[in-house]
């Protein structure tokens, strides 16, 4: 089971808000998007891969060279199975604002975008206004309906599942010595996944939460 913090009123309110959101039928005009970010190391091989028999994966030496770090923004529409991946050098407020703008651009005709994310200090209106200015920043912020997960409740964000899939498909398969290499592989993953999109199945409901965590309905 997940590591769950103290179930105070704020935790329960936010948890049930997100869980109710996940039960909504898929609506093109009001998509649900889960958003998160992950830091990763840029690594290069010290020695070339060892050749093996045709059709087999080349052996990789355990020794590697550090080439800096990068950040990956990852979003998923769970009911559509559609990914959004953006690689940046850092995880600043400006980077968050630009990722938000990219998500909005993908959903230009939506009435609102329900965005599930955590309480990182850069996830705020101030960050968007700081990057795009007062008028454009507020206009962008109004494109979204935000659903913040409780503190210490990353298990509620389905973007965590998406990042796990991305890590298995991209980060653990080979080393990426440059930002360009990581972007190339991440975009290829996004294209492959979206061309054969598979919706996520989220089965934990409000009723399950009340039964599991043994709290009364407020």
Primary descriptors:
single chain, 218 residues, alpha/beta, Nucleotidyltransferase, domain 5, 5-stranded mixed β-sheet, 7 helices, 5 strands, globular
Description:
This protein is an alpha/beta fold and 218 residues long. It has one domain: Ribonuclease H-like superfamily/Ribonuclease H (Nucleotidyltransferase, domain 5). Helices cover 38% and strands 21% of the residues. The protein contains 7 helices and 5 strands. A 5-stranded mixed beta sheet has the order 3-2-1-4-5, sandwiched between helices. Helix 2 packs across helix 3 and helix 5 (159-171) packs across helix 6 (179-195). The longest helix has 17 residues, at 179-195. It starts with 8 loop residues before the first helix and ends in a 5-residue tail after the last helix.
Question: How would you summarize what this structure contains?
Answer:
By secondary structure, the chain is α/β, with parallel strands linked by helices.
Topology (SSEs and partners):
Elements: H1 9-22, E1 32-45, E2 64-77, E3 82-88, H2 93-106, E4 113-117, H3 125-132, H4 134-141, E5 144-148, H5 159-171, H6 179-195, H7 206-213
Parallel strand pairs: 1-4, 4-5
Antiparallel strand pairs: 1-2, 2-3
How would you sum up the global shape? Answer: globular
Give, in order, the helices and strands: HEEEHEHHEHHH
> In the CATH classification, which architecture applies?
2-Layer Sandwich
Q: What proportion of the residues form beta strands (DSSP E)?
A: 15-25%
Spatially, the strands of the biggest sheet line up as 3-2-1-4-5
CATH class: Alpha Beta
Per CATH, what is the topology?
A: Nucleotidyltransferase, domain 5
How many runs of DSSP E, i.e. beta strands?
5
| Total separate domains | 1
Mean pLDDT, as a whole number?
90
Radius of gyration: 19 Å
| CATH superfamily annotation | Ribonuclease H-like superfamily/Ribonuclease H
Helix content range = 25-40%
Contiguous low-pLDDT stretches (5 residues minimum) are none
Helix/strand-derived category reads alpha/beta
Q: Kindly, what is the distance between the CA atoms of the first and last residues, rounded to a whole number of angstroms?
A: 24 Å
Counted by DSSP, the helix tally is 7
């Amino acid at each position: 089971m997940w590591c769950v913090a103290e179930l105070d009123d704020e935790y329960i309110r936010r948890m049930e808000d997100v869980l109710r959101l996940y039960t909504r039928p898929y609506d093109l005009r009001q998509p649900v998007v889960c958003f998160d970010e992950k830091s990763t190391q840029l690594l290069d091989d010290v020695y070339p891969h060892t050749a093996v028999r045709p059709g087999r994966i080349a052996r990789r030496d355990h020794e590697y060279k550090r080439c800096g770090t990068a950040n990956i923004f990852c979003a998923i529409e769970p009911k559509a199975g559609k990914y959004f991946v953006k690689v940046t050098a850092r995880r600043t407020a400006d980077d968050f604002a630009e990722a938000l703008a990219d998500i909005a651009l993908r959903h230009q005709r939506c009435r609102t975008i329900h965005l599930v994310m955590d309480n990182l200090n850069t996830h705020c209106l101030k960050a968007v206004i700081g990057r795009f200015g007062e008028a454009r920043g507020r206009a962008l912020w109004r494109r979204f309906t935000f659903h913040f997960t409780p503190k210490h409740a990353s298990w509620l964000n389905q973007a965590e599942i998406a990042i796990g899939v991305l890590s298995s498909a991209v980060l653990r398969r080979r080393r990426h010595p440059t930002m360009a290499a990581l972007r190339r592989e991440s975009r290829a993953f996004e294209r492959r996944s979206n061309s054969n999109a598979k919706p996520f199945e989220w089965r934990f409901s409000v009723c399950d939460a009340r039964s599991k965590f043994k709290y009364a309905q407020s």
